[in-house]
Automatic annotation (TrEMBL):
Pathway involvement of the protein, from the record: Metabolic intermediate biosynthesis; chorismate biosynthesis; chorismate from D-erythrose 4-phosphate and phosphoenolpyruvate: step 6/7
Name of this chain's protein: 3-phosphoshikimate 1-carboxyvinyltransferase
Primary role: Catalyzes the transfer of the enolpyruvyl moiety of phosphoenolpyruvate (PEP) to the 5-hydroxyl of shikimate-3-phosphate (S3P) to produce enolpyruvyl shikimate-3-phosphate and inorganic phosphate.
Alphabetized Pfam families for the sequence: EPSP_synthase
UniProt domain Enolpyruvate transferase: residue ranges: 12-428
Gene Ontology biological-process annotations: amino acid biosynthetic process; aromatic amino acid family biosynthetic process; chorismate biosynthetic process
Listed GO MF terms: 3-phosphoshikimate 1-carboxyvinyltransferase activity
Domain of life of the organism encoding this protein: Bacteria
Subcellular location: Cytoplasm
Length: 442
């Protein structure tokens, strides 16, 4: 069951409510991109609020091993990057280990396609099962040469020294990782590289490229750039990750008597599906002190508990809340009335099959949860508690930790070490605001 030799467990006692002020760690998507673009820029980039999770550290180490001088992260999340320019990377010694991080592997596939040298990228057990054809196919049509396993999974060998040609790519899946991979390869391609997306996805790559002085055109669902430009170093203030804040939004919504303030949360409109869906369920969320920090909108979010109601989740909101469904399923399990999700087959190819793994976990806790090919049907009530296997998926583990706030019996969550990929310090922070969680090794 466990992917690592020891099984880190979360043991969560039922009850409690959430109070106080919390700043969750930095945004994972923005932290990855800050290292990538900072490394390829001309000049020194200063990053603050960097997420010191294992995923982003994989990206950081990859660029270090390609000769980029990167200082930090310091304890308070400062990173200083001496950019080497788009053509200044050196051949790494050995493979680039992307750990659990799909974002690193997919975005780097695009960037590495434009280099003069070969790179081999590997990942952990979960990443080694995830689909990469979604990036290797469009990149190959630009002239890249990437070897994968027969089924299109990692490890990936990206051959260097290829001449890339700009393409237009009509994306079959709404994926920011695919969009970003193609656009980043486009920096090295001749002419125009463009994509159309079937639904809006997170636009951090486009925003940050513009922050580094690189022209990117967005016209509705059509995004394009010209190859052959350059990136100019800039400073990046990474907001708190709305995907990490989501667990606390759900926890404070379901746990009676809660009143929690989440500070400095990134509220980029391509990420706020969690807020919209919780509001449709009747949640009491106040978006306060809206401001813009380094090209990204930020706010404080006050969450007070309320009785949620089950809903049919609008499909248009799925890509805008793609990482938040494990937490939302927990919210649905304590709502009044049925919740139905459709149009979310992408959840089956995340760090785990989040439809199946969440359904199994909810069932183990006594809840009627029926997986469907592209979603789930949750009939709330009877959340007793029990033992849940997170399958090494950080977001599954953190979601069930919040569920204990309203469960009737303790919840034991297995295989939780990967919470460190996106949310170092989760247990301490959750305990500080009122979750009755401790860790154990089994
Ligand atoms: C991410 C995009 C999303 C998301 C992932 C991070 C990104 O993946 O699930 O956690 O940083 O671009 P898809 O774009 O494949 O949906």
């Amino acid at each position: 069951m466990s992917h690592s030799s020891t099984n880190l467990q979360f043991i969560v006692q039922p009850g409690g409510s959430l109070h106080g002020n919390v700043r969750v760690p930095g945004d994972k998507s923005i932290s990855h991109r800050s290292i990538m673009l900072g490394s390829l820029a001309e000049g020194t980039t200063h990053v603050s609020g960097f997420l010191q999770g294992e995923d982003c550290l994989c990206t950081l180490k990859a660029f270090r091993s390609m000769g980029v001088d990167i200082d930090g992260p310091t304890d308070d999340g400062k990173v200083t990057i001496q950019g080497v320019g788009l053509h200044g990377l050196k051949t790494p010694v050995g493979d680039l280990d992307m750990g659990n991080s799909g974002t690193s592997m997919r975005l780097m596939s695009g960037l590495m396609s434009g280099q003069a040298f070969d790179v081999r990228m590997t990942g952990d057990a979960s990443l080694s099962k995830r689909p990469m054809k979604r990036v290797t196919v469009p990149l190959a049509s630009m002239g890249a040469a990437i070897d994968a396993t027969e089924t299109g999974t990692p490890p990936l060998l990206v051959h260097g020294g290829r001449k890339l040609q700009g393409i237009h790519y009509d994306m079959p899946v709404a994926s920011a990782q695919v969009k970003s991979s193609v656009l980043l390869a486009g920096l090295y391609a001749e002419g125009t590289t463009s994509v159309t997306e079937p639904a809006p996805t997170r636009d951090h790559t486009e925003r940050m490229l513009r922050g580094f002085g690189y022209a990117v055109k967005t016209d509705g669902n059509h995004i394009s750039l010209q190859g052959g430009g350059k990136l100019i170093a800039t400073d990046i203030d990474v907001p708190a990750d709305i995907s990490s804040a989501a667990f606390f939004m759900v926890g404070a919504s379901i746990a009676q008597g809660s009143d929690l303030l989440l500070e400095h949360v990134g509220i980029n409109p391509t990420r706020t599906g969690i807020i919209d869906i919780l509001k449709l369920m009747g949640a009491n969320l106040d978006i306060l002190n809206e401001r813009e920090v380094g090209g990204e909108p930020v706010a404080d979010i006050r969450v007070r508990s309320t009785q949620l109601k089950g809903i049919q989740i609008p499909e248009a909101l799925v890509p805008l809340a793609i990482d938040e469904f494990p937490a939302l399923f927990v919210a649905a399990a304590f709502a009044e009335g049925q919740t139905v999700l459709t149009g979310a087959e992408e959840l089956r190819v995340k760090e785990s099959d989040r439809i199946q793994v969440m359904a199994d976990g909810l069932l183990a806790c006594g809840v009627d949860a029926q997986p469907t090919p592209d979603g789930i049907i949750i009939n709330p009530g009877n959340f007793t508690g029990g033992t849940v296997d997170s399958h090494g998926d950080h977001r599954i583990a953190m979601s069930f930790a919040m569920a204990a706030l309203c469960a009737k019996a303790p919840i034991t969550i297995n295989d939780c070490a990967n919470v460190n990929t996106s949310f170092p310090g989760f247990v301490e922070l959750a305990a500080r605001v009122g979750v009755r969680v401790v860790t154990a090794s089994a």
